[in-house]
Structure formats: structure tokens, C-alpha cells
Specification:
By secondary structure, this protein is an all-beta fold. It has 1 helix and 19 strands. Helices cover 2% and strands 39% of the residues. Strands 15, 16, 17, 18 and 19 form a 5-stranded antiparallel beta sheet that branches. A 4-stranded antiparallel beta sheet has the order 3-4-5-6, with no helix packed on it. The chain starts with a strand and ends in a 9-residue tail after the last strand.
Length: 218
Amino acid sequence: MNTLARSGVLLMLSTLLASSSVAQIFLIDAKDAQYIDASAYAPMTNSVLFFSGSAMAAYDLSTSERVSLTWYDLGKIEPINAAISWSDSTMLIFSGSYYRTFDVLTGGVSAERLEWPGLPEEWGGSLDAAVRWSEEEVIFFKDDEYLVYDFVEEAYTERDRFTSWEGFPAGWTMPLETAFNVQGDIYLLNDGEAVLYSTTEDRFFLPSPIGIADTGAK
């Protein structure tokens, strides 16, 4: 069995199972998972930042204990429905096709609100999720479609239905809630579950619960 880890960071609770399913991914309460609207990985702090409405919570990937997320209000900004890693210390947080810059270290949000150009008119100026797929590419998601923007070519290079990707969970309903990239491991979140796509192995694993249910045990 292979453990899913990058640079010594614990990303899973346990090993990959022989059935190609991934064990519990995050040591957070299941109720917290219900509020996640957007997310992105912050390399400088080795954490995943989750966004809900106009609030943010950080999840430390090195944690080994169950935690409840602490949400921080980011001020009077639009509800966030997508986010991408931009640099080691910054992210872009989207409300529809418009974005602001978010500083991971200070928690500051830029006053300037810019529009990301060239998204399909059929999407009506809205997004479901986005992910920095690689250094060269960002993928945007809307309903069951994806759109690839290539920074090298400075153009959109591919648009299709991600539900037809080989290994994508057939039982998932659309749209996606969020997606993020942890050093080449792409996590897609939907309705309390996550599915992992490994760019190194070029395959999906089976969906697994995001959070830990409260059984009421003392």
C-alpha cells in the first residue's frame, strides 16, 4: 500500500486502500464540510484555505488531531465561490467572473475587483469552482463543463465535459463545490465527499468523506 504524502506532509489519515479508495481525507467535523464554497492550497503555510460566503478558515495539513474549523470574516466583500493559488503567499478569490487578491499571511483582501476575461458567455458570469492545475494551467468549472486557460499560450486551450473524464465518480451530481491542488494531487469536493486525482499516477481514486461525523461518543 502507498501512503499519499508530499514533502513529509501528512495528507491522509491512513494508507491508500487496495480498492483504489482513499481513506478519510481531512480531520475536520463533517458539519464544517457542509459550509465549504471554495478552497485553495497555501504552500507558504502548508495549509488549505476554505472559504464560505465571505469568511475563511485555514486547515493545517500537518495536523494529526481532529479540529473544528474557525471561520474569519473577510469584510464586506462578495460571497466567494472559487479560489486559486496564485503565488506562495497569495490567492485569487472569485465571485463569479470577478476576482480579488487575497494575502495568505495577513488575511488582507485587495480593494480592487477585476474581471477574469474570456469566460464563456453561456456561463452567465458565474463559476462553480476553479483550480490551479499546474504552474501553466488554471481550470474553471461550471455545471458539468471545464475550461482550461494556459498561461504559456495566453489562451484557453480546451473546453469539454469533465463528467466524461475516465474514472470520474459516476454517482456525483453537479455542480462541483470546490477544487484545489496540493503539490500535484488534485482534490475535487462535492456534497460532503472528495475525490482525488493524482497527476503523477494519472488516475482518480474513489470518493471518500471529507469530514468526521460526530457519533456522540464521549
